[in-house]
Specification:
Shape: globular
Number of domains: 1
Radius of gyration: 16 Å
Helix content: over 70%
Structural class: mainly alpha
Largest sheet: none
Number of helices: 7
Number of strands: 0
Length: 175
């Protein structure tokens, strides 16, 4: 615990600014997705541009241009493929393109190696949040559909904070 507090205290101004931008953008996206089931492009574009600027200035998470671009491409390809397969199985659109774009933005900020963590936190967080709110309100909130954006946002933010704190289990530069 003391080591973590020392790590937080030693974050650079660039790390704090990057974190503030990411928190603001992801919080806005999460709020909108919970209210409307939609992840608006303008906020995602701002987060993508901010991610590119952070990479250009020297990512506090230690992500290079190569990893950022690979992360955006690989994350988008994986989620687009999942969307396509699940949509075919269900016979209708199963996941919005906003979710695909959000994991691509996460890839810009974190590279491709964070995707399993983003997916795990995104899926589990969405299910847990839905269960808690449904039990408090004593009724199902969504009829067969749940917004995934807030869970993915939590996964992206959690990985970014872990990268800033140099968590030993998170290897964003590869295995």
């Amino acid at each position: 615990m003391i080591r973590d507090m020392a790590s937080i205290a030693s974050l650079t101004p660039m790390a704090w600014i990057s974190l503030a931008i990411l928190v603001a953008g992801l919080a806005a996206l999460s709020w909108i997705d919970l209210r409307t089931g939609y992840l608006p492009d303008p906020i995602q574009i701002v987060l993508a541009i901010a991610g590119l600027i952070v990479i250009g200035l020297g990512s506090p998470a230690g992500i290079s241009w190569r990893l950022a671009l690979a992360g955006a491409g690989i994350n988008a390809a994986v989620f687009w493929s999942l969307r396509w397969v699940i949509s075919r199985l269900k016979g209708r659109e199963a996941m919005g393109l906003g979710d695909v774009k959000l994991v691509a933005v996460g890839g810009l900020w974190l590279g491709p190696w964070a995707l399993p963590y983003i997916m795990a936190v995104g899926g589990l967080g969405t299910l847990a949040g839905t269960a808690v709110v449904s039990s408090v309100k004593r009724k199902a909130l969504w009829r067969g559909e749940m917004p995934l954006g807030p869970g993915l946002a939590a996964g992206i933010l959690g990985c970014f904070v872990a990268a800033l704190l140099r968590a030993p289990w998170l290897r964003l530069g590869g295995p």
